[in-house]
Amino acid sequence: MIRYIRRAAALCLLLLAALLVNAVRVMLVEAGELDANPANRRGSIARWAEPRGEIVVDGKPVTGSRDSGEQLRWERTYRRGPLYAPVTGYASQTYGTTMVEHAEDGILAGTDPMLAPLPLWNDLTRGRSPGGDVVTTIRAPMQEAAYRGLDGKRGAVVALEPSSGRILALVSSPSYEPGVLSGTGPDVKDAWTRLTTSPNQPMLNRALRQTYPPGSTFKIVTAAAALDAGVVRDVDAPTDTPDPFVLPGTRQVLPNSARGCEDASLAYALQWSCNTVMAGLGVDVGLAGMVEAAERFGFDDTTLRVPSWVAKSTFDRDMSPDQLALSSIGQFNTTATPLQMAMVAAAVANTGEIAQPYLVDRTTTSGGATVDRTPRRTHRQAMSPSTALQLQRLMVKAVDEGTGANAAIPGARVGGKTGTAQHGLGNTGTPYAWFIAWAQAEDSGRPAVAVAVVVEDAEASRTDISGGGSAAPIARDVMREALRLEAESRASGTPGARGTRGTDPPPRPHGPPGTRPAPRPADPPATRPRTIPPSPPPRPRGAPGTAGTP
Amino acid sequence: MTAPRTTDAPPAAPPPGVRGPKRRGVELVLLLGAVLISVCGYAEVGFAHDGAVPPDAARYGAGLGLLALLAHLAVRFRAPYADPLLLPIALLLNGLGLVLIYRLDLETPHDLAATTQLVWSTLGVALFIVVVLVLRDHRALQGYAYVSVAAALALMILPIFFPAVNGARIWIRIGGLSFQPGEFAKILLAVFFAAYLSANLSALAYAGRRIWKFQFPTWRVLGPIVAIWLLSVGVLVLERDLGTSLLFFGLFVIMLYVATGRTGWIAIGLLLAAAGAFLIGSVEPHVHGRVEDWLDPYASIRAGHGPGQLAQSLFAFAAGGMLGTGLGLGHSVLIGFAAKSDFILATAGEELGLVGLTALFLLYALFVARGYRAGLALRDPFGRLLAVGLASIVALQVFVIAGGVMGLIPLTGMAMPFLAQGGSSVVTNWVIVALLIRVSDSARAPLPEAAETGETGEPARVEAGR
User: Fold this and answer.
1) What is the pLDDT of residues B156-177, one digit of tens each?
2) Residues of B in contact with A126 (CB under 8 A)
3) Cis peptide leading into A307, omega within 30 of 0?
4) Which of A286-290, B73-77, B202-206 bottoms out in mean pLDDT, i.e. has the lowest?
5) Mind listing the pLDDT tens digit for each residue in A318-357?
6) Catalytic residue numbers of A?
7) Residue A522, number of CB atoms within 10 A of its CB
8) CB distance from B354 to chain A under 8 Å?
9) What are the C-alpha distances in Å from A215 to residues A142, A207, A222, A246, B289?
10) Is B37 helix (H, G, I), strand (E, B) or coil?
11) What distance in Å separates the CA atoms of residue A320 and residue A303, rounded to the nearest whole number?
12) How far apart are the first and last CA of chain B?
């Protein structure tokens, strides 16, 4: 019997060994896979177990946390949520994170290894650091001015500091309270349903993620392309443009809402927004030249992060001449985000160079030690400095005595460009009123701010210079705040239009001009045959009706 | 072992001088260690949860210490030669179980179980003391073979007349107290098997026909035991208490094998088990679901119903990793309603890690090994079979439930011995400890009788309980 007892004992030992091997399998070998299973709530529990770090605007947090006592414990709260929603986004136990809450989640949630006191510290202690803070570049007075100006109308405002790329204001309207999405339960679900089904799309970040036809504001890009390509050598010289202008290869006539556009100079065309001149110039520059110019400004770029991703602004690469003509005045398939158009204005203001736009100045640990600082980086050279200087002059003229008169600020040099864009089938959609501008204090060495404003304005009609009517005053108010802040910071001895950074790079010398395509002999400047060469009929691709773009 | 005895001849004493010392002091020190570890765990839970030692930690320690001391005194005076490891291991496991249940209570303030469990543990230890005091010789149980089997069947059939809980009819409720009589039937059946098999050893081994290679005992001998066993397994399947039916099956096969030494039994047992399991698994929906869940624990996640209990349990184990999250810092409460009973091991795995889990398994292994050791050292077949049976009950329980909650085998409801919430289980297991103490005492005690002759098998290896 002894032998059999021993064998029975061995069997029990075998069972135990099986248990141990299985324990190793579950707890070590497959552990990673099990931990990462989306149905495993431990990750979420750990993530919300501590208050998130704060998102800071002008030295004050615009976020907070409240202890809900639930399993996913700390819920996000927002101070002036609707105002800053396009910047912060939401951080929801149920719906995840967006915008800065998403892009800087590692810092805010404390998982970023840079927050740990020592390398691999958190891995060893199985803990996580307290959430760090994210300091934004937003200036509260400008943000508020923009929000007030939009006044709940559908639209967006983006303001940049041209020299550095800092985003000073980022407003989308109508907005929403991100705090209602914090937590779990039926209230959050109802709020989500309400917000996502609302016809006003309050959760859409129109400043970064919505593209609009830019209308006449795109004429700045076309003008830069024409000057850089040598199509126009003298901005004050008359161009050879008929009025009315027949789109090449079609019988379509392109109307103007401005007067005196026949053979008008580039200067006049920008001052009064002549469709015919700019469409003609676009055709003269040619498809390749226009595509290249648009891409130098940042169109067709999907890689831009600020650190939230930005929707792609488009300029079609494959068009017939008539479509190219329409695209050159911001119609047809040309679309742009408000941020993109702010970059266009900033490029002019900053002598042709676009600084990489960014929203997060620096991230810090919960104790305030800097973890990471966003450096100033050159994003693109949109045009040559000389072109930029000429455009500055023309944009100033458009404000001083042109379509943008509503944006004038006493005691400052302001340049701007209006735009109106129709859209929808047969242009039945609410027109968009655009205004892009930049402003420079008279006693300052460089422009303080570049702005793009877009408003869906039912009052705008193509005969009205509505970009100047409804969008320009908003831009003016925002720029006024920027100039005021700049003056304040200079008075207090801090350079730059902000009080957050100690030292500033000196004003940059003009960089080397961008690649300037030489005028091609096959494309002689400023002389276009008046006879319309036979060409294939236009593709029925969203060609507008009698679209005017004042 | 070739000279089966069917009589109650007094067991023979080995040569003098082989018997080891009593080792009661060792037991006392180990008991103190067990109490200390449990109290430390209790304090740690308080620290993790409130940042302070629970106010009643000292009381808890004192209570556990008092239980340990009383049990130790009973052993010291009534079973002085008993194995010194059995009692400390049982106490440590019970103490840790209380800590884990208390820790889970913190997450479920509306459903507290630690106090109840402590009462049951006290009752278990009290019963342990009673058994140690009253039962002076394990061979006295031999005479109660048929009484105990009748009682076991009665206990098992009883719950059929009570409402089912969580799909299993294994409870009887009297007033506010619920009890699983099937738990206690384990011991009774082990006693019966041991008594019957030891009484019919030779008949089982040599009588009967040969069929092909297998020597079958006559039905006269085999009939009653198979009938009893089939009856009990049948009843349990009827009550949906699969864990216990699996346990009885394994217990029966092991004891039969130890009694007869025929490997055929194991083979036949395994074949029968496989056939029965397959049959039940495909016919019975409740069991079928368990098997499905075992084959693919994540099916419900993919179907969008969220993780099932087994998936949650595996998540908990995975979260533990090598060192665990620390007591009171895991989230095994996500498992749901059975977290304190069937799935208590998941809490241990998550919060103590693979290291802690291995320690627990080794404690069980040590306990089982000491039971087997007592069986090896004994001279009477009944005692041997009883020791092997009782140790196997613990081993099989651990395997069935630990394998179930870790996805090794299909999940069957059963309590982790000493560790899990469940009054009946704790009390039953304390009685098992008492019987093993009694058996090991008689195995290690120096006996005045003359040495037995005719034992040609391997002499019993005995060692001092180091």
Assistant:
1) 887 777 776 666 666 666 655 6
2) 323, 325
3) yes
4) B202-206
5) 888 888 888 888 888 888 999 999 999 999 999 889 999 9
6) 216
7) 6
8) yes
9) 25, 16, 12, 19, 64
10) helix
11) 28
12) 27
